[in-house]
C-alpha cells in the first residue's frame, strides 16, 4: 500500500511539472501541440490561458484564424487566413516571425485550404517550425471533413495531425465525464451527449461548455517522448482559469489585464473528490470473506455463508475423490488411466492396445 502511494505521488509530481512545461513553452518541451475540442467543450478558454502564459514568458504570439474577427487579448500579430492561398498564408506567417525571438504560432482552427488533398500537410506545418518557434493547432472533432476535400487513398488530416504532434490535448466537459464515471462505477452503460445521442435537433448535450458541478474542464494529455514512449494523464483545470464561453467553440477573447495570469490550481483528475476511485473495503481474512452481508455489498440478497454452511461445504466428498488418492489412500492410483470395454463393432488393433 505504501509503495502504491509513493508511485502515485511520483506520478502526480512528474505529470504536473510536465503539463506546466508544455503550457508555458519551457525548454522546448513540445514544439507541436494539438488541441482537440468538440461542441461539448470548446478550446477557447484553454487557448486564452496559453496566450497569457506566453506573454508572461515574453513570447511573441502570432494568432492565425480563418473564422475569428478578433484575436485574444495579448496577441502580438493577428493573421486572417480567410480567402488566402496556402502559399500566401505561409509567406505572411514567416514574415511575421521576429528573428531570434521565442515565438508561438496559434492556428485556431486549421484553415480549410490546408485540408485539401493537394497540400502536403506535414511538409507545410514543419516548414513553420524552428528552434525558437512552437506551434499550437486546434481541431474541431465534431466538424466533418467536406466531401470535396476527402481522399480515399490518403490518411485524413486528423490522422496526420495526431501523428505529427508531440503533445495531444483532448478537452471534455466536466459534468459529462462525471456522469460517465458514475455509470462505470455502477456497471451501467455510459450516457451519450450531443451529437452522439443521435437525436434529431440535438447538437450540444447537458453540461456542454458549462460547469454546474465542480466547475472545470477535463483535459486528457498524451505526450510523446523522443524515445517514442507516450506519457498519458488526465487533468482538471478549475473554472477560475476556464470561464464559460458565450458561444460554442467560439474564438477565445480575453479582457485586458489578464495577460499575466497563468493556469492556477490545475490538478490530476484522480485527485478530485468526485473522481476518486471507489473506496476499497478493509483487508479481511479468508474466514471473514464468507461473512460479508448484503449491507457491505449493497445488494438485495446475501452472498455470504454462515458457519454451518461453511462446515457443510467442507464436508462434501467430491465424485471420484477416493480414486484420485494414491495407493496409500486406498484409491486406484492408476495415474489417470482410461478403462474401456470393447464392443462387437470395435476393430481390435494390437498396436493401439499396447499403448
Features:
single chain, about 350 residues, alpha/beta, 9-stranded mixed beta sheet, 9 strands, about 25% helix
Low-confidence region ranges: 241-262, 289-295
Question: What's the assembly state of these chains?
Answer: single chain
Taking all Cα atoms into account, the compactness measure Rg is 31 Å
Order of neighbouring strands in the sheet with most strands: 3-2-4-5-1-6-7-8-9
Give the number of DSSP strands. 9
Distance between the termini: 55 Å
Largest sheet features: 9 strands, mixed
The topology string of helices and strands comes to HEHEEHEHEHEHEEEHHHH
Mean pLDDT over the full residue set: 79
Q: So what's the overall shape?
A: elongated
Overall SS class: alpha/beta
Strand content: 15-25%
> Number of helical segments?
10
Task: Provide the helix percentage.
Answer: 25-40%
Amino acid at each position: 500500500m505504501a509503495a502504491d502511494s509513493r508511485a502515485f505521488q511520483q506520478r502526480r509530481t512528474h505529470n504536473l511539472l510536465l503539463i506546466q512545461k508544455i503550457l508555458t513553452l519551457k525548454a522546448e518541451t513540445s514544439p507541436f501541440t494539438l488541441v482537440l475540442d468538440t461542441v461539448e467543450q470548446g478550446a477557447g478558454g484553454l487557448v486564452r490561458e496559453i496566450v497569457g502564459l506566453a506573454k508572461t514568458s515574453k513570447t511573441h504570439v502570432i494568432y492565425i484564424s480563418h473564422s475569428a474577427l478578433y484575436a485574444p487579448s495579448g496577441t502580438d500579430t493577428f493573421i486572417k487566413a480567410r480567402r488566402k492561398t496556402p502559399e500566401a498564408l505561409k509567406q505572411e506567417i514567416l514574415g511575421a516571425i521576429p528573428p531570434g525571438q521565442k515565438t508561438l504560432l496559434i492556428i485556431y482552427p486549421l484553415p480549410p485550404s490546408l485540408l485539401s488533398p493537394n497540400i502536403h500537410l506535414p511538409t507545410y506545418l514543419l516548414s513553420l517550425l524552428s528552434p525558437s518557434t512552437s506551434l499550437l493547432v486546434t481541431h474541431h472533432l465534431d466538424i466533418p471533413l467536406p466531401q470535396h476535400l476527402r481522399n480515399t487513398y490518403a490518411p485524413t488530416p486528423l490522422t496526420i495531425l495526431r501523428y505529427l504532434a508531440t503533445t495531444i490535448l483532448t478537452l471534455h466537459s466536466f459534468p459529462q465525464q462525471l456522469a460517465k464515471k458514475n455509470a462505470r462505477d455502477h456497471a451501467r452503460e455510459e450516457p451519450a451527449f450531443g451529437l452522439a445521442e443521435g437525436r434529431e435537433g440535438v447538437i450540444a448535450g447537458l453540461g456542454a461548455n458549462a460547469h454546474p458541478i465542480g466547475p472545470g474542464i477535463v483535459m486528457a494529455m498524451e505526450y510523446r517522448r523522443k524515445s517514442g514512449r507516450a506519457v498519458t494523464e488526465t487533468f482538471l483545470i478549475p473554472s477560475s482559469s476556464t470561464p464559460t464561453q458565450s458561444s460554442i467553440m467560439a474564438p477565445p477573447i480575453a479582457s485586458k489585464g489578464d495577460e499575466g495570469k497563468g493556469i492556477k490550481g490545475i490538478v490530476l483528475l484522480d485527485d478530485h473528490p468526485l473522481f476518486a476511485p471507489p473506496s476499497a473495503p478493509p483487508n479481511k481474512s479468508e474466514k471473514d470473506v464468507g461473512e460479508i452481508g448484503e449491507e457491505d455489498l449493497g445488494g438485495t440478497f446475501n452472498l455470504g455463508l454462515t458457519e454451518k454452511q461453511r462446515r457443510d461445504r467442507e464436508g462434501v466428498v467430491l465424485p471420484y475423490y477416493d480414486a484420485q488418492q494414491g495407493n496409500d489412500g486406498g484409491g486406484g492410483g492408476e495415474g489417470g488411466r482410461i478403462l474401456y470395454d470393447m464392443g462387437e463393432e470395435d476393430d481390435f488393433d494390437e498396436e493401439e492396445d499396447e499403448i
